[in-house]
Amino acid sequence: MSDLIIETRGLNYYFGTQKVVDDLSLKVKKGSIYGFLGPNGAGKTTSIKILLNLLKSPKDTVFLFGKEINSNRIASLKRLGALVEQPAIYAHMTGRENLVNRCMLLNIDKAKSTDLLELVGLSDAANKKAGKYSLGMKQRLGIALALLSDPELLLLDEPTNGLDPNGIIEIRNLMIDLASKHGKTILVSSHLLSEIERIASHVGIINKGKLLFQGTINELHDLSKPTLEIEVQNAAQAASLLTENGYELIATTENKISLLFKSAEENGKINTLLVQNGFIVTSIYQIRKDLEHLFLDITKNN
Ligand SMILES: Nc1ncnc2c1ncn2[C@@H]1O[C@H](COP(=O)(O)OP(=O)(O)OP(=O)(O)O)[C@@H](O)[C@H]1O
Fold this sequence. Notes:
By secondary structure, this protein is of the alpha/beta class. It folds into two domains: 4-218, Rossmann fold, CATH 3.40.50; 224-300, 2-Layer Sandwich (Alpha-Beta Plaits), CATH 3.30.70. Helix content is 36%, strand content 27%. It contains eleven helices and 16 strands. The protein has helices at residues 44-51, 73-78, 95-106, 112-119, 135-147, 165-180, 193-199, 217-223, 235-244, 264-276, 291-300; strands at residues 4-8, 11-15, 18-24, 27-29, 33-37, 62-64, 67-68, 80-83, 153-157, 185-190, 202-207, 210-216, 226-232, 249-252, 256-260, 281-288. The strands form four sheets. A six-stranded mixed β-sheet has the order 8-9-10-5-11-12, with helices on both faces. It has a four-stranded antiparallel β-sheet with strand order 4-1-6-7, with no helix packed on it. A four-stranded antiparallel β-sheet has the order 14-15-13-16, covered by helices on one side. The chain is elongated, with a radius of gyration of 25 Å. The structure holds adenosine-5'-triphosphate. Adenosine-5'-triphosphate is lined by residues 15, 20, 38, 40-46, 191.
């Protein structure tokens, strides 16, 4: 049996003539926190709405829990909870009343609302009107509402958007707890790599509707290959010497040479070669492109 909770196969979606989702093949494994990353307008919200069947997908392109979504709509939706755009909260009701109200609609034991207030850290504010909640508290209440039916899968669309640093940390920790302690699978979208990097086990990077990268967070790190930077006087002549000795250079400026990092031993050999040939090496160091730059590169080249 497949361990994929979400799978899309070559999914396309159009608004009028605009192709907003382009040949998208997502694979979200059970128990993962899947960071769905992309700049504004990349197609994240549209994709999430398709997963929720709020927008209809072509037949046999979207599978939730191993089943085609259009022919298993109710059964699939029962197993997932979602927070897309603004949480549907009654401002004139307290946090607890919002949850109790939803319990009654879903025919769930009202006592569940107390557990969820605790889980999302709103116990102390349970009797405060939700309209008076901070943005972060509203998001947490939204997540509590999404969790009422004890779903296996959570779809969260930019849940930290607009939150202050404390609010961001709270939601981040909540997501980590939900996956690690409560066994939930979470797909969370964001336009900020720094957000996703801290919590996700897997990452999908989308731009203009196309999936440009999909893999584990470690596989994403592996993509950012380190380089060796050598600061040396007479860099042009030093570069010629290195090329004559079989080294492939990435770039040379007036006083610096860059090449692909291979090993510390190799660094030593290069240094010795330069020094023995009379070059004055002022600095030699390794640089690894940070993920933020990698993300920008991936989305820019699309
Ligand atoms: N209801 C709609 N009708 C027409 N075009 C739409 C509609 N909703 C979204 N779009 C367009 O589809 C594209 C993808 O939008 P979407 O909201 O899915 O992106 P996103 O990655 O979620 O971005 P953001 O982070 O800004 O929400 C954009 O060009 C947007 O303008």
